[in-house]
Amino acid sequence: MAGEPAFVGLISLRRELISSRLHSRWNWARSCRMCTSPDSSATKVASSKGNKSGTGEKSKDAGSGEFRGARLAKLDQMREAGVQPFAYECPAAQPAASIQQAYSYLAAGEESEDGNELVVAGRIYLRRVFGKLAFFTVKDDSGSIQLYCEKKKVEENMGDGSFKTLKAFLDTGDIVTAKGVAKRTEKGELSINISEYSVLTKALQPLPDKFHGFTDIEKRYRQRHLDLICNESSKSALRARSKIVSRIRRYLEDRDFIEMETPVFHAQAGGAEAKPFETYHNSLERQLILRIATELHLKRLIVGGFERIFEVGRVFRNEGISTRHNPEFTSLELYQAYADYNDMMDLTEDLICDAAVNVMGSTELEYQGTSISLSKPWQRVSMHELVEEKLGSSVRSFSSVDDLRKAAIDAGVGGVVEGVDTTGELVAKIFEELCEAELVQPTFVTDYPKEVSPLAKPHRALDGLTERFELYIVGRETANAFSELTDPIDQRERFEAQARKKEAGDEEACGVDEDFLAALEQGMPPTGGLGIGIDRLVMLLTNSASIRDVIAFPALRSIE
Fold first, then answer.
1. In percent, how much of the chain has pLDDT > 90?
2. How confident is the model at residue 131 (pLDDT cuts 50, 70, 90)?
3. pLDDT higher for 127 or 214?
4. Cα dihedral sign for 156, 161, 164, 166?
5. Which residue, among 162, 202, 223, has the nearest Cα to 70 in the 3D structure?
6. Are 45 and 54 in contact (CB under 8 A)?
7. Strand partners of residue 137
8. What's the pTM value of the predicted model, to 2 decimals?
9. Beta strands 328-337 and 133-139, pairing class
10. How deeply is 12 buried, as exposed, middle or buried, from its count of CB atoms within 10 A (0-12, 13-18, 19+)?
11. Would you call 322 helix, strand, or coil by DSSP?
């Protein structure tokens, strides 16, 4: 039947293979008889001392037209022989890792006598073919295991010629399934001594050379499927990402937070300072932008009566690409009514430590050669304190913005402070230039200037500052939180100040969001809000150097 995995077609196969390349020989280890890969452009055989990629193919980049043409020809041969190269289903298979664990007790040369017939399925990574014996290393999502293919046993179960078919049709990159019993070879490799096999998917392209590997950084990001096939570390990072996000969700849900979904299309940017992507809705005949934050809609839900909410979602910012920045990224934003930024600091510490322990196994990490301790409590220091340490004077001791600017230039900040005309903005610039990179261990930087915090509540004790913090680890902003501004009059004034900056040409400034202001006038309870960059957190916990390593398909420049 077409829906079966082709065991029947393989059993009945008697066809003699006419290509001489299927029967080429190579003298190795006292002239052992070996069979080449049929789509090889040479007659060399993969062996432990020959073509160690195990492909039977010359080492070229994956995607070679020569190899594809040979495999297309083989595809036709398979169909002519009644073998389905793209199966519809597969018998239920056991994970390779569980087999490795279950039969770890087998000694070298010993075969299991428990009577269990095992079924495995996976992609062929290594192919070694001899006269009456063949070995294939297959990998599934859990790990790898070797298929031990003996001509006598295969043909007893599948008929004459089935072993010849195995040698002719199976190549590296193919996805196969096999049945058999556990056996440890004389060399100590746990294997499946197969009685039956079947092609599930015939790969039309070979895998990259085993020893040179798939290491070109640009190619890895552009051909992520090959990166994942060849580099287990890439799969591990993405697998850890999934677990980290899942753990964050569980942590919040266990504390009565409810996950919400808010619109991706906004009428205008809000909730952050960033240049948005613009689009147009044909049916609505309306210019829209992709959200740069989820903040304002989530706070409208707090006004509506929800007290603990969060959203894990993609946001989009039309800005540069670097090892720390991707134009679309994932953020966690949460809001808790009747809380403030001190509560958010406690929650942030606990949430990140929980993810580190439950996913990575410890709060003690290494990031790019630097030891990081997430053990609580984390340092808490105000932005003014850090800046004053660099300037050698209190920020409030400067009588004018010009005097502060001169002190900043003397401290080595340079031209970035030219044209900055408020004390708060100058302090923030000095902090970015002189302090950020030194915050290696987890540090809450608190009490940001009002001028750079348009959505944070004024500090209850310090004039000109707000109740805001950012978390820095390895010199990078990882989280941002406020005691949320609940005064609609103050909020309107700050929006209008942002709008003036926008009119003056600041592409990252926001306008006045009347819908949000209308909601705020209904009354919002005292609220703590927190945003965490999921990508940067995953980078930290997985020791990934670039944000591209933790995003499955990062944004890339076009190839000319």
1. 81
2. very high
3. 127
4. negative
5. 202
6. no
7. 126, 146
8. 0.85
9. unpaired
10. middle
11. coil
Question: For residues 95 and 102, what is the distance between their CA atoms, to the nearest angstrom?
Answer: 11
Cis (ω within 30 of 0) for the bond into 377? Answer: yes
Are 156 and 147 in contact by the 8 Å Cβ rule? The answer is no
Tell me the sheet residues that pair with 532: 332, 479
Please tell me the total number of residues recorded for the chain in this structure: 560
Burial of 421 (0-12, 13-18, 19+ CB in 10 A): exposed
Q: Taking residues 266-289, report their average pLDDT.
A: 94
d(CA 61, CA 519): 58
Cβ contacts of 511 within 8 Å, gap of 6 or more: 268, 269, 270, 495, 498, 499, 502
Q: Which two tokens stand for residue 549?
A: 């390593």
- What angle (nearest 5°) sits at the alpha carbon of residue 323, between those of residues 318 and 325? 25
**Alpha helical stretches, state H, 184-263:** 217-222, 224-230, 232-254
Cβ neighbours of 283 (radius 10 Å): 5
Decide if pLDDT at 21 tops 70.
no
521: three-class secondary structure by DSSP: coil
Alpha carbon of 310 to those of 109, 294, 298, 529: distances in Å?
Answer: 57, 10, 8, 10
Asked if 7 contacts 198 with a C-beta cutoff of 8 angstroms, the reply is yes
Question: CA-CA distance, 483 to 82, in Å (whole number)?
Answer: 70
Q: Indicate whether 361 pLDDT > 60.
A: yes
Residue type, 423: T
Dihedral sign (CA 12, 18, 21, 27)? positive
Sheet strands side by side (includes 278-281): 265-266, 286-290, 278-281
DSSP string for residues in 459-506: PSSSTTBBSEEEEEETTEEEEEEEEB---HHHHHHHHHHHHHHHHTT-
Euclidean distance between CA atoms 119 and 445, whole angstroms: 55
* Residue 237: C-alpha distances to residues 233, 360, 447, 534 (Å): 6, 11, 34, 13
pLDDT range class, residue 50, cuts 50, 70, 90: very low
